[in-house]
Design a protein that fits this description.
By secondary structure, the protein is mainly α. Helix content is 77%, strand content 0%.
Amino acid sequence: MKRYWGDIKPMDYLRTGFFVAAAFYFFAGNLAFTWKFFLAWILIMVVRWLQVPVWLELGFMIAGIFQVLGNNLELFQHYTYYDKLVHFTLPVFSGPLMYLLLVKNRIFEPNASQPKWGWQIFYVTAFTAITAAVLWEIVEFTVEREFHIPLQHGNTDTMTDLITSLLGAITGGYLAVLSKLGLK
């Protein structure tokens, strides 16, 4: 599987950007921004280590950029649509990534000789993505309730987050099927 466009490795620059941003904020004394960029960099390096297709790695990095910038620049608070953008893009790319983790660890093995292999890929990808979204909403609820940090903005916010995440999970499942992800 070809990972890069020719000899140029533009994704390395994006990956490095997360680490450089973490280092910049560390030396600037902003530990809140530091840990967000550093955590995003760690996740992106794990994705790199998995050696996934370029479209999936790039999409995950873009979703990561949306998430980190949304938190650091308070875009979630200033633009109502921004929350929905992040809740859509993260499942689009995290679903196929979780699916590939299942395939690489032989927890799930798609079989192209079966007539419904596409549905297998779709269901596993979409269900893992929506499960992650639901677990995230549970984390938000728990953090808000136990530590009094306002992460949720009512039932409507939570439900639209879940609906948007579901649409992202369905899209991610569809992309996984189109690319025949995990098939040998």
